[in-house]
């Protein structure tokens, strides 16, 4: 006689010690009869994941039912049962789970399958009354970076639109998702996971494994493309024929520690704020007024638009736009999310020149936001008398959680990541201090066309670990170079260079500041120095104030023709895009056909570079003890180093310099590398003083890199910069510590924020010349003779 379902599970649990294999097999058996058919009504159908009528292709991996009554003993399984909050008191998990982190070995056909339908297939019968396109939503629990992928198919077929259903956000909680992992967006794009049901009638919906360890609770299909992500168990399942089993006893989801003492509904809805300073103002039409408001200069612009990435947990928010009332006109404002307008507001007049307050604010209700969404503020000036105009000032955006799920996410973020201190960690200024420089400017290097010309300014004293001011973010050195003919004209960013000889001295402090130019014309060049100081002035923050006597320095120098020949890129000129398939050298007009080594990405993980050491992935990244990987020595190529080749610090660098000689000797004209891979495969290359110190750069290490890059240019080796690996941005969703809101590996959580802007500026300032490029900044650089470079 067949035991009732719950008694069956209890009986199996009692037998675990005596028949573990039988127990494991029992958890993979269907708990419904093949006669059970679910029904679509009104364009929606929902099914519990554990209600599959069969599973196939489960020789290497299978789906095991976990419920509030019993749990299988299959090992390895790297996390505890997550039945709390599971719909129907149960879910299925693909086991065994041998790949939980990016550091675990991927074995295609065993713990990973990018081929839909190839492994561990679940089968469900669904009766569709309405043919059409159905968008697929699934509810899953992801506790790591490698348990968040699934495939979906229909009637034995696995269309491209059903492959790679992906989760990234909402770690360690049950979350609905309907996004497809794509080459462009690894964390998935919406509206791309769907099944096309051609006819009414009974069909078979199938799900198959992509990554083992996947925990699957429920799914629903809907014809509504804009269906709002549920914050609960989602739509109710409806049965067409057969009988669904009774649900298992429900278990409440555990709350975050900070919220456990009270119901979710009682969690505080602490407002989250994006200030005007969080929006970069460069080339937007805005400027930062009084250090606290976005504002428009009516003499230059009538409207402006600024953007920033949403830095808070995904959820639904009431979004308050705090504008500034003005007496000259009623400015109008728009707020958009990913270019979709959330609302518009016309600010009433003030009786004062400018005034903040509730009267000059508005709230857009229940806006769905995902971490990393692009928030856009647009505003237009106005005038009451046609003569004086308002400046469309914006103070801030305030985000208040609009539902319990979002309150809980905000609470978890607060518990996981303490509030930032008023001052950055570490001393404001590293002691002892030395006097500032005298403002003298030296122009050095080989003053020839296409060569590296270096302008060194004896400027303010700084230490690479200073915080207030930070020499990398709060000092903006830019130099405008102009050829005597008037064209070209370049404005080039500068950088802090400690004592000017850091590659050999390993100095961390000094008064030297540098700018590099690769002049594309012989003749006389002039320069004009702009040097300002202000909070985040170097990356689009405060406009800053002129730093005397350094700001305003000027002079000129003469550039001769290049004397280089052969492979040396300085004989050929800048590589430039000319509208054809290949880049072209600006001087020789030859086309560049790239042929060289595309590996290793960790070329710069070199023992002779200052401050280079293994990172987390090499030591104990997944919680398992691992032997530390040795840094590269390039010793095999030390014999390829030649007398007269560069070194640093009394003979260091011969191995890597020799390696470049070897590549050039074999006819290669390119080599590639990552200047930043913290959180990636190697986790041993970064330009910062420390792995996590993304606002402080290691000047001596970067000077040593520069020696290598310049040697490559002289050898005719193109520098293939790979700025980072995409998986490092995925880390914010689980590759690292899995805590949403804490982003140890990636820059700004994968978005364009202060960390990434500084990273790009530093690399361009230091190495742009080595790539044969000059970089323009500033709105005035718009003539066709000028060139700019965008990363």
3D structure, described in words:
This protein has 791 residues and is mainly β. The protein has 4 domains: 246 residues, Jelly Rolls, CATH 2.60.120; 145 residues, Sandwich (Jelly Rolls), CATH 2.60.120.260; 119 residues, Immunoglobulin-like, CATH 2.60.40.10; 203 residues, no CATH class. 11% of the residues lie in helices and 29% in strands. The relative contact order is 0.09.
Brief sketch in words of this structure:
By secondary structure, this protein is mainly beta. The chain has 9 helices and 42 strands. The N and C termini lie far apart (70 Å).
Topology readout:
Elements: H1 5-14, H2 20-26, E1 37-40, E2 44-48, E3 54-56, E4 62-67, E5 90-95, E6 121-128, E7 132-141, E8 149-154, E9 165-166, E10 174-177, E11 179-180, E12 189-190, E13 194-197, E14 201-209, E15 215-222, E16 239-241, E17 272-275, E18 286-289, E19 293-296, E20 303-309, E21 315-323, E22 325-326, E23 332-337, E24 340-346, E25 354-355, E26 361-369, E27 374-380, E28 394-401, H3 404-416, E29 441-445, E30 453-463, E31 475-483, E32 489-493, E33 495-496, H4 502-505, E34 509-517, E35 523-533, E36 545-546, E37 554-559, E38 575-576, E39 583-585, E40 591-592, H5 616-619, H6 654-665, E41 670-673, H7 699-714, E42 718-721, H8 726-730, H9 754-767
Parallel strand pairs: 1-6, 41-42
Antiparallel strand pairs: 1-16, 2-15, 3-6, 4-5, 5-15, 6-14, 7-10, 7-13, 7-15, 8-9, 8-14, 11-12, 17-28, 18-19, 20-27, 21-26, 21-28, 22-25, 23-24, 23-27, 29-30, 30-34, 31-32, 31-35, 33-34, 35-36, 35-37, 38-39, 39-40
